[in-house]
Amino acid sequence: MTKFKKNTSKYLKPFKNWFTLILAIFIIWMLFFDANSWFIHNELNNDINALEDEKEYYRREIEKDKKAIKKLSTEEGLEKFAREEYYMKRDNEEIFIIEYEDSLKTKQND
Fold it and tell me: Which of 30-39, 73-82, 90-99 has the highest mean pLDDT?
């Protein structure tokens, strides 16, 4: 029994001081149980980083869209877009669409 008492007193010696005991309880409380615990802060910081990445992505997309709008605001850009995307033509023109075998969508290519 004295051997058990010696081992436990060696490990519990720092906790006999009230200041150390209160500090240990405070640290455990702040890390795990408090509403502003370290785990919650870590999770919120991860959310903030993800939102900042998303914000940067949308800024790049806005810049890309502004360039496209600027391009479409000119007469030549609008005509080019209409010809390429919607296959529009002038009255005195004919359009020939050439499709290659590898550009066609078939069940084998999907």
Answer: 73-82
Q: What angle do CA 34, 16, 26 make, to 5 degrees?
A: 10
Closest CA to 32 of 24, 18, 19, 48: 24
> What is the rounded end-to-end Cα distance, in angstroms, of the chain?
77
Q: Among 83, 62, 79, 59, which residue's Cα sits nearest to residue 71?
A: 79
Task: Quick: pLDDT tens for 2-26.
Answer: 555 556 667 767 667 778 888 888 8
- Distance between CA atoms of 89 and 10, rounded to whole angstroms? 92
Check if the beta carbon of residue 81 is closer than 8 Å to that of residue 72.
Answer: yes
Residues contacting 8, CB < 8 A, separation 6+: none
8 Å CB contact between 87 and 95: yes
Prediction pTM value: 0.52
